[in-house]
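assembly run, all chains below
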Amino acid sequence: MSIIHQASQKKVRLIFFISVVVLVSAFIISVATGYISLSPSQLGRTIFGFGTSQENLILFSFRLPRILVTILAGMGLALSGAILQSVTRNPLSDPGILGINAGAGLMVVIYVMYFSSEATSFIYVLPFFALVGGILTTIVIYLLSFKRGEGVEPTRLVLVGVGLASAINGLIFTLTARLEEEQNAFIANWIAGRIWGDDWIFVLALLPWLLILSPIIFSKAHILNILNLNENVSVGLGVKVERERRLLLLIAVSLAAVSVSVSGGIAFIGLMAPHIARNLVGPRHQSFLPIAAVLGSILLLVSDTIGRSLLDPSGIPAGIIVTIIGAPYFLYLMAKR
Amino acid sequence: MLIKNKQTDEKQIVSRPVIGLSVIILGLFVLVICLVFAISVGAAHIDFATVWNSIFHYNESGKADQVIVGIRLPRELGVVLVGAALAVSGAIMQGITRNPLAEPGLLGINAGAGFALACLLAFQAHASYIVIMFATFLGAGLGAGMVFGISSIKRGGLSPLRVILAGSAVMYLLTALADGVALVFHLTQDLSIWKIGSTSGTNWMQLRLAVPIVIIGILIAIVFSKKLTILSFGEDIAKGLGERTTLIKVVLMAVVLVLAGISVSLVGALAFVGLMVPHMVRFLVGTDYRWIIPCSAVFGSILLVLSDTAARMINAPFETPIGAVVAIIGIPFFLYLARREGRRQ
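ok done. output:
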């Protein structure tokens, strides 16, 4: 372990407060920007219920739900990445790189192929589909990197995950080659990470997962602290390593799969947010997890806003912007180590 | 924390010339049979004798002759060429990096070529083949340069894990950039064909350019294969034996980029061929690259011709993307290697 520098409680609270302020500002800017921009005064009166019908439509039917989906998905991906990094004891872990997103994506493709014509109520089912895909992929990765007597060796886990990710992506391309043009375009956009869940239904489909899983993660923060240490230390401290690892892995996979099911395949948020948070307040999970969650939201929201304003009217998918920022950061982290 | 890779296993040169030679001769024989079979099956079935006749006694007026020589033969030759090129470049990369998982598809080379292709199409929609070839070659160099540059910054950095991780990140980055360019310039459709790999567009004009380059590339690789064998035992040993390791690496890496770039320009991004074939060959002929490289070329061609034929037959008359067929064999292979590699570290 590197030298543990631990910020004081006061500093942690201050940084958390600042990041929330940044998120709120990003939120306001994002609401105002788009194909039809809203001025601050328009925005103010629309929020308090005095907007024109057009302003109301833009804000409440299109922009607000999309932004909320973005914030929730960013949070989910950041928390998922943070857990994965601790559980695999590999600071370069990320649900996108490990193939969990790809597995979820495969199930999204299958959903689109067979159920997309059904009523919109099926939207609530989509996260479960993604979840099944994510969990199945993780089980495959886990089994392939598991060895009796040694448990799961982090290096092998990452290698297997990377390979499986490229494999599943190939499979997705093959499946989509035969689809109708419209469905094909949807999948292509999904893979590129276009936030497509821009309706209140998607907010409702995503919110319960975060509300249920986040408290569990925070209650396990001390276990994450220990798992992040050497395996022998963890065992010595009385943690049932394999069991806790599996449970936390399940939570991480669920968060990632559910998030990407509505946000599209977005990598690197789960990598960047925890790293920046750890740099700010140190490696104690109780301190950095909440900050990582807020940072994840900021990153995804800013990326989506940039993407929306770059190319009218459809925009560049958020996933592309995130990757263009995130991949160099990943390479920087690699070079530094 | 990344776990440092230490290869402690003792290595010895295992060279089996007799097996190597018979693999090449037998392989070429099998390749010809596969080719004739591949040319004969398709939307219009043509029997073997006609195939043979129209290739060696070409008659311009015959309909079958036109189909065979105009469409199927260039396609199959393209497949043979790409199979050999990818397999040889995979073998060279595995030798240089001493990384059993090295492969153009996984190390940013294909993604770099794709990015270059996207940029080229954005600025010049109807570029000639020679320009496309040059662009993919530059792009391949960009991708490989990034991966190896970044993973070798730290001392002892070229461990399989680091290279694979860097390759994965570079691949994400270049693919995202290519997608972005494609969206802005409305090229998504053109690029999606390239992403899944398509063997159907090869023509004689492309082949006239590509065949000599691939042959020269493979010949250079064979000339340097003895030095590659020495290099594959480690940089220190090679230096101790008086080899100019940097020169050898530069030449061989250039060969890899040319071969991979040509493959991408002909059929698109094909992963796993360069990974699988050298391992299969090594299993037969040992660890001497003088035999691994020519045998890989032959094996790669056979593998790709068979995959391409399967791709045409699985869901006839529609073509399944060849990348998918290769991936079906390649994925289990990669997972097996990754598991083995993880155990060794």
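Residues 1-10 of chain B have pLDDT under 50 and may be disordered.

Chain B has one domain: 72-344.

not gonna interpret more than that til we talk
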